[in-house]
Every structure is written in C-alpha cells, then in structure tokens.
Amino acid sequence: MTKPTSLKTFIWFPGNMDAALEFYAETFTDFVLHSDFNPNAGQPRFTADFSIYGHRFIGMNWPGGDPFNNAISLSLGVDGQAEVDRLWNAITAKGKPGQCGWCTDEFGLTWQVSPIQMIEHLENPDREKAAYANQALMKMSKIIIEDLYE
C-alpha cells in the first residue's frame, strides 16, 4: 500500500446538490471544489469531491435517497460573535433555526454554529459559572457569547 487510508463524509443530496454547492461556496470562506463528475452534458453533477474548512466531502446527486435528519450534524467552531451571526444568518435564511446553536440549511443538512469562546464558559473551573453558562445555552437558539456570562 502506497497511500494512507482517508476518511471523507459522504452526503447524498436528493437532486439539489448543485444548488447546495453554490450556497456552500458563497457561505463558507474556505470552500474548495476538488473535482466533479457529470456523465451527461447539460445535466446536474452526479458526484462532487469538495471541502469546507479543510473537511472533505463526497456529494452524490440522486433523488430518492433517505432525507437528512438530525442524527448527524456538521459542527462549525467559529471565532467570535460576528462569525456566529454571519454563518447562522446565512444558514437559516432559507433554512430553520434549532436549539443550542443547531440549525438546518435549506437542503436539509444540520449544522451546529459554535463559538470557540463558549468552551471557556462551559468548562469554567468555577462550577457556578459553568452551570450558569450551561443553563443559558440550553435556552438559546443561536449562541450569544455575552449571554453565557453571569
């Protein structure tokens, strides 16, 4: 064996992968389309190999598959409230908000938009402050960093 084994997340889009790739390219500042396959000119792509913030995906564009559900989500660790707001607003513009930073894009894929600053509150050595942050988080849809402070 000359190449190491790799791991990519496989996503089966129900016929709307091209629109999803366009949205992801517009929304995520580090989106790369590595390759795609289209056996029929003039038709949507059949597969695409792409990455978002360095995480590799294989997308397949085929109607009739199982719909996405909340059993799996993609977690975005972002720096600061402005980036939380930007990504949350983009994803929920045609998607839907959830709880504790989770939201679903218009294609049915679930994301969690989590500020990296959140962990300092949830893992605060002062147990009362950590408990306060956890209780505040449980009441949030979009995560608001300043609301994690006592």
TrEMBL record:
Cross-referenced InterPro entries: 3_dmu_93_MTrfase, Glyas_Bleomycin-R_OHBP_Dase, PhnB-like
Gene3D superfamilies, sorted: 2,3-Dihydroxybiphenyl 1,2-Dioxygenase, domain 1
Coiled coil: none
Chain ranges of the PhnB-like domain: 7-113
Pfam families the record matches: 3-dmu-9_3-mt
PANTHER family (alphabetical): PHNB-LIKE DOMAIN-CONTAINING PROTEIN, PROTEIN YJDN-RELATED
Entry protein name: Unannotated protein
UniProt source species: freshwater metagenome
